[in-house]
Amino acid sequence: CRTACHENGRNYYGSWLETSDDLQTNAACVMPSRPLLKSACEALKQVHPDVCKRYFGCGLVIPEKLEGCTVLDLGSGSGRDCYVLSKLVGERGRVIGLDMTDEMIVASQKYVQYHQEQFGYSKPNTVFVKGYMEKLNDAGIQNNSLDVVVSNCVICLCPDKRTVISEAYNVLKEGGELYYSDMYANVPDSFKEDPVLWGEGMAGALYWRDLITLMNDIGFSTPHMVAGSQIVVHNPEIQRKTGDVKYVSGTYRIFKLPQNSIKTRALVTYKGTVPDCAECFELDASHSFETNVPVEVGAEMAAILQNTRFSTDFNITMLDTPDTDQSSTPQYCHLSPFLLADKLGSSVKQCSKTGH
């Protein structure tokens, strides 16, 4: 995978950037369209300041209910997200940070013992390994071994996204989740030749329609959008280079469901048991479950709630009616993130890009 794009990425994040202030724009950012979980906010406060200092501008990507999970962070950088995850998975959980740059691996490993002691663990639950997202087995990550894979504005830095998504699918257990933020746009191939555009994630942004196609081809569930942000270019030089190309950042969650899951609708009732979500559990921008309120859902959502780590948080009654409407997945999932931003209105923030 030693392509020119990889070389640009390694140089940009390994050698050229020392802190987030060195970024030419804050393009690679996802502002949350809903508040962070309380537990995630508390964990972030415990992360060493030097780790946060070398964090390169992406929003925190933390799903719910991680206690005891094994989690992989693709493109772990300084390790900030990994250490937040380390706190949330608890001492019985495990966090693996994967990065392709020696500099980032060395920088993140320095604080393993610090966070072990900070969280009161008897032994570390976090490791950092060098490797490529396209070759996870080569990095020692086994198939069907992970509960959750997260990625924070890093897949846009990889030229072969199909292989990256396939690798994530392979290493996840059945019922596992890919939870990630990235940038989306319809960009010309010529952008890939610009090291700054590539390093900022703008040259490798995926076209949103391709995301849905990729996930379906590989075997994942339909992508469920959690959050979205419009990206506005203010840096004059970047603006000149990108022209009228429009960017949006979005957080999606996608599940690896059993191939033989029952394709019928279901009546589900949330028990109020997901940590930090006692009154309401917002699975995505289209599905919000209030405690003790029965809701009828389509076949795929029923399969998600029945076969993932959230299965014990719902009472589920399968209905006799088959789900003949294949578009019964969240109505916004098949739309452009730009249209989603318009539909969700004030719940979607605007991410401003300025030069430093």
From TrEMBL:
Q: Which residues form the Methyltransferase domain?
A: 67-214
A Pfam family that this protein carries is Methyltransf_31
CDD domains given for it? AdoMet_MTases
Q: Which GO terms describe its cellular component?
A: cytosol
Which Gene Ontology molecular-function terms are recorded? arsenite methyltransferase activity
InterPro entries found in the cross-reference section: Arsenite_MeTrfase-like, Methyltranfer_dom, SAM-dependent_MTases_sf
Identification of the protein by name: Arsenite methyltransferase
What GO biological process terms are annotated to this protein in UniProt? arsonoacetate metabolic process; toxin metabolic process
Q: List its EC numbers.
A: 2.1.1.137
**Reactions catalysed:** arsenic triglutathione + [thioredoxin]-dithiol + S-adenosyl-L-methionine + 2 H2O = methylarsonous acid + [thioredoxin]-disulfide + 3 glutathione + S-adenosyl-L-homocysteine + H(+); arsenic triglutathione + 3 [thioredoxin]-dithiol + 3 S-adenosyl-L-methionine = trimethylarsine + 3 [thioredoxin]-disulfide + 3 glutathione + 3 S-adenosyl-L-homocysteine + 3 H(+); arsenic triglutathione + 2 [thioredoxin]-dithiol + 2 S-adenosyl-L-methionine + H2O = dimethylarsinous acid + 2 [thioredoxin]-disulfide + 3 glutathione + 2 S-adenosyl-L-homocysteine + 2 H(+)
Q: Which family, according to UniProt?
A: Belongs to the methyltransferase superfamily. Arsenite methyltransferase family.
Gene3D superfamilies from the UniProt entry: 3.40.5.100, Vaccinia Virus protein VP39
